[in-house]
Fold this protein.
Amino acid sequence: MNSTGTAVLASAQPPRKLWLDHVQEWLTTVDHKRIGLMYIGYALIFLVVAGVEALLMRIQLSAPDNHFLSPEVFNCMFTMHGTTMVFFVGMPILFGFGNYLVPLMIGARDMAFPRLNAFSFWISAFGGLLLYFSFLGGSGLYGAGSAPDVGWFAYAPLTAKLFSPGHSTDYWTLSILLSGIGSVGTALNLIVTIFTMRCKGMTMTRLPLLCWLYVVTSWLTFLALGPLTAAQIMLCLDRFAGSHFFDVQAGGSAVLWMHFFWIFGHPEVYILVLPAFAFANEIIPVFSRKPIFGYPAMVAASVLIGFISLGVWAHHMFTVGLGPEGNAFFTLATMIVSVPTGIKIFNWLATIWGGKIRFATPMLFSIGFLFQFLIAGLTGIMLSVAPFDWQLGNSYFVVAHFHYVLVGAILYMIFAAFYYWYPKMFGRMLSEKLGKWHFWLFTFGFHLTFDTMHIPGLLGMPRRVFTYPADRGWAMLNQIETVGGFIQAIALLLFVWNMIQSYRTGKEAGPDPWDAWTLEWATSSPPPHYNFAVDPVVHSRRPLWDRKHPESPDTHYE
Amino acid sequence: MSTQAVALKASTEEWRLPDKGKVGIACLIVAESAIFIIFVLAYVFYMGKSLSGPTPAQVLSVPIVGTICLLSSSLTVHFAVVSLEKNRIALSNAWLALTILLGGIFLGGTAIEWRKLIVDDGLTIRTNLFGTTYYSLVGLHASHVVVGLILLISVLLFGLAGKLDQSHARRLDVLSYYWHFVDAVWVVVFTVVYILGR
């Protein structure tokens, strides 16, 4: 059939697409919105998987001398939970939102390198599959379980061939190597997009703060994932080629692995938390009906974090013994990081101050984030003091601290982002009623679990023990944590139900349901393939405000 | 009144953005540098800590010819870009071919050096910490040279097939940045391995 004939047919009645056509479209897409959604969907699947692993561990710990999980399986569970949450939930979900939002917010039609974008996604996805394939193909069953069981930071010499026979550790290191390549690819793409594809009039000082934060996150991704990749290459060489990087018997150093891992590991925390800050920067002003307070200070604080956080890694290693100079330096550096983060908290508070606050679900999660991030920061400062850390390092206090950051701050802002941008992505509002149930139930469960978790840590309960004797007095506290864990799981199910139900029956969102100010709300929901029919031109940080209020545009005040 | 002024200003002012390729390659260089820094650190950290021989002083000799070739190839690739910008395709092809030749000599030098180390001196990646760090650092750099050569050769093939013109100068420029980076890394590796480490 010739092409005009096809065109006539198509205009008369668009043919129904086979499901295979849809699959083919998604598999071969280079559209930043679809890749973003695939990142997010893939991360949500892994969130459920890693969440189930967490619940299994909570069941095991809910009673003393429990034998629900064997010690070997427990080792696999905490390794897989940590690795999955960091590399296959946190990174992809944040890169997914970045992919989806950045081009829309800067008024571009796609990312700078769409094919690199697709490549990055698929190689990360393959890394995740490889990690979980270890359950089947790990053949590392010599009594050590088939999944990786070396902990998410995989200290040497436990990872040596001698102590981790079989292939489970190989799957771990290769999957992280692959996902690292994908992360660097996406980070590169984000920076190039933001620097070179801004619409007319969008100078760097008018750039939405979300994009600024993604620049800093991407910068940290280069500098943190590089060392991780290097360390994984060394581990691969040790395991496959018989080299001696971390082989103590040949004069190698186990502490060197720690340094290399944490040079990645600490900036990684900021790679994960900066996008959470980015969401807060967009959501809090819209629901306070005020522009963000202190835009330049926010940018400066973010850039400062991007540098200071590179020099604090050894606070994960106080218990190794760094000597007085090392301890003093890393204690001080760690405390200094809290200055720019403090600036951010005060700016958010000042944004809310005197605003006309709307307590919609995104704002509820943002306020939860503010409180919980503050507490997480305070326990962080406690742990930055070396002598305090000697006492509580590797205890449940540390576990409680970083879950406060990862769940209480980052996951809360991810939830907020879902409620805020879901209408843009699918054209329908999420149910506010279910959203409020989700928020209150999750908050209750979160505090039950993670507030309580500090106490067994203070009482001396070490992390990563598969069980504990009854006479320690930890049983009741652990039981409470487990109950809280299940309440969070129920809240999460509500959220999943909300997303499915709202996709079918949710209220029509329209292009701009929140009366917001950034460019993604200037196009239809969901946006067309090309994002903007006409390239937008902006004159201030809030282009949609200018359009809605021509009598008093921001250009008068910036 | 003032909105109009602003709008007028925005429409007359020229909107210029940085070049995609250049920003991209700069990002790649930052990320790659982070990887190399860790390998260099490992090399420096394990200097003189091998429990058995052979030591660098016993077996390494300074690869002067290879180094000169690799460093001068930075100049030749630059000339290739300049010629292409002026649309002098044949000249550009010649400079590219020379660059590839120089890079090839460098790789050949490394191959001869490794053969000597492995066969004559019995130093492999398993022998001691020196072998471990030496082969991985020099090997990582050499693998970057290989990637660069593959890219340069494909450009040369396009050039010989007559598919190259002035409009591609920008892309060759980006590739030349990568090549300069590989050279700069060699300066560091050379200093650490053949001067400080010996």
User: Anything to note?
Assistant: DSSP finds seven helices and no strands in chain B. Residues 52 and 127 of chain B are 8 Å apart (CA to CA). The helical segments of chain B are 2-12, 20-45, 56-59, 64-85, 89-120, 129-160, 169-196.
